[in-house]
Amino acid sequence: MTDTIKIHFLGAAGTVTGSKYLIETGEKKILIDCGLFQGIKKLRLMNWDYLPVHAGKIDMVLLTHGHLDHVGYIPRLVNMGFKGSVLGTAPTLNIAEIILRDSAKIQEEEAAKANEEGYSSHTPAEALYTIADAEKAIGHFKEIDEGKWISLYDGIKARFQYNGHIIGATFIELDVNGKRFVFSGDIGRKDDLLMRTPKKPEKADVLFVESTYGDRLHPIENIEEKLQEIVNHTIEKGGTLIIPSFAVERTQTLMYLLWQLRLKGLIPDIPMIMDSPMGANVLNVFQAHPEWHKLSMADCAAMCNAFRVVEDYRETWETIDNKQPKIVIAGSGMITGGRVLTYLQQYIGKESTSVLLAGYQAEGTRGRKLMEGADELKIYGKYYPVKASVYNVQSLSAHADQNELLDWLSELKEAPEKTFVIHGEAQAADTFRVKIKDTLGWDAQIPELYSIEELNLNQS
Q: Could you say which DSSP state residue 196 is in?
């Protein structure tokens, strides 16, 4: 094995999405996460590019968790020649299966719709990958245990440690000949309603730390009280509350909160609908892996029974045609696709409608535009006026804020030799870089996309 290690920053460097970090030891190439770029068009177009490394020479992929911006590129990687295993915890691989199938289905449907209605600049419009491609990628999955060191190759071992962001989520410790690389993944919160408190790393020679909310603190607010207020105000207007939601963890958190509000008599007994096939599948993952979250099996069942889970598109239209006040949770969380688009086409132009944004909204997404006060929204090539009331509840985020990120670093006994601030927009990443310097005295850097860093294993 060579004395030099190369780190290739293939995604989530200088931006939030597209997480991909290649560790090249000389003999082995290990990819940490394999995500899609999301948000502005310039980033999304990168998903069509070939990687600046040979996919067929990558030996293995390790997954921190199952979100699209961490797993969504795997079918592309396989199509480019990757033949190795994709390792993750059982719930992470369950979630990744759901997300890849859903992503492929949406891409196939949107390509077909674009060809039928002629609004794509490409003729014909094509899916980035198909359902068949997703199934082929899933065939590479290999389940590992949380919290146990596993030998990958001679001199290389890894451990996946619980970090509470979503079900199955971990940070990854990779030891290469005694040098420890720590990849934070997306770090969860200490007092999450559903997830347990994240574990913390105790040693990191080379640290990769996310900075999604590196420039801010989540507001301290009574989330039950705020949600109660939004629901009741919408009902007073005789309207519908639409909640675009991430299918993994956020949907389940919202379901739990709304179920609790109804149980306590704080909101009326109006229809509550969960219209996300992916979200329904994720509920099954929660039921299959109770050791990964706080919900009891009884509460999980009661929460599910409080909602009508929409199975097919016909039921979506039945829900839309029913004019009585209701609450609809639908994918996707940043309004980039999914069933929520159909609801917004019909409801966004009504003053009686409320839209609740309940998570991070990446630059260039419809969710970000709504959050910033857009007066119209483009959906499938057509503009819709925004007359609905738009609310943004940041305290529901599953991402650690600046203080929680610093707390996650608090058990490192020595400063890392290298600290890379990743997975953040420019301002968030740079603010967190400065905060690390001012608070911990560590020099940190923000790598550029597609840059390569060389490290000497013999340095101490």
A: P
The pair of structure tokens assigned to 396 is 């529901």
Read off the amino acid at residue 439. Answer: T
Same domain, 12 and 137: yes
Shared domain check, 150 and 243:
no
> Under DSSP, is residue 428 helix (H, G, I), strand (E, B) or coil?
helix
Domain shared by 105 and 138, yes or no: yes
Phi-psi region of 6 (alpha: psi -120 to 50; beta: other; left: phi over 0): beta
Last residue of a domain, one of 396, 411, 431: 396
DSSP 247: T
For the chain, counts of helices (H) and of strands (E)? 14, 22
- The enclosing domain of 181 has a CATH number of 3.60.15.10
Contact 238, 349 (CB under 8 A): no
**Whole-model pTM?**
0.90
Q: Are residues 17 and 65 located together in one domain of the fold?
A: yes
Phi-psi region of 441 (alpha: psi -120 to 50; beta: other; left: phi over 0): left
User: Which residues of the chain fall below pLDDT 70?
Assistant: 1-2, 118-123, 459-460
pLDDT value for 221:
85
CA atoms of 368 and 352, how far apart (whole Å): 21
- Show the domain range for 435: 4-216+398-456
* Residue 195 and residue 403 in contact, taking contact as beta carbons nearer than 8 Å: no
Give the position of tokens 């923000």. Answer: 446
Whether residues 273 and 404 fall in one domain: no
C-alpha span between 78 and 58 (Å, rounded): 10
Note whether 296 and 188 are same-domain residues.
Answer: no
Q: Cβ neighbours of residue 49 under 8 Å, at least 6 residues apart?
A: none
Are residues 375 and 385 in contact, defined by beta-carbon separation less than 8 angstroms?
yes
Extract the tokens encoding 49. 């590019």
Q: What is the pLDDT of residues 116-134, one digit of tens each?
A: 776 666 668 889 999 999 9
d(CA 162, CA 199): 6
Say what the pLDDT of residue 41 is: 87
Structure token pair of residue 422: 């990743």
The vertex-324 CA angle with 323 and 330, nearest 5°, equals: 80
Domain count, the chain: 2
Rounded alpha-carbon distances, angstroms, from residue 47 to 18, 113, 171: 8, 20, 24
Domain co-membership, 261 together with 356: yes
Domain stop point among 350, 378, 396: 396
The predicted pLDDT at position 2 comes to 64
The answer to whether residues 66 and 166 touch, using CB atoms and an 8 Å cutoff, is yes
348 and 279 housed in the same domain: yes
Specify the CATH number for the domain of residue 349: 3.40.50.10890
